[in-house]
Amino acid sequence: MRKKELAMEVIRRLKEEYPDADCTLDYDEAWKLLVSVRLAAQCTDARVNVVVEDLYAKFPDVNALADAPVEEIEEIVRPCGLGKSKARDISACMKILRDEYNGKVPDDFDKLLKLPGVGRKSANLIMGDVFGKPAIVTDTHCIRLCNRIGLVDKMKDPKKVEMALWKIIPPEEGNSFCHRLVNHGREVCTARTKPYCDKCCLQDICKKVDVK
Description:
Elements: H1 3-17, H2 30-39, H3 45-58, H4 62-67, H5 70-77, H6 83-100, H7 109-113, H8 120-129, H9 140-149, H10 158-166, H11 174-187
């Protein structure tokens, strides 16, 4: 089975297995997803969802967060780890949104990449989830599973994986496909335990690269 054919079959099966897969970060405005994505680096989404409740209770909008002392932001977000750098990036990012974008998150990939603390993974997530545009989010689950399944070959660099997937994943499928990989990576094709291949919906087509 060629990679493109394999990709289409994987997409079809994961759709059946996880029909309601979505972003696991809680947000109701675009700027909040921007904040949460920065906090989620080396931290679980579940913890981020708890921490941001306190952050938004004190600083409820872009202007409030832009005006907030960095030290106060850091005090709240510290449980997410890397508090100092995350607080600094969030503060700088909110100031740019306030001063250059009228408090709105830009719907342009390159403009997103210029925001402090925003890399390709974060920019793709926002493009896909907020603006409904083609996106491929190469987080750790995506990279691990795509290598195991055989959609990419021994690629660990997120950008290289992203570029390889753009060639075989239909643009309109990319965002939801990556959300489904997260679900599958957490529930079945796990990282810290032996993957549960016996209950995997992909077991007969997965190449099981590096799976013992």
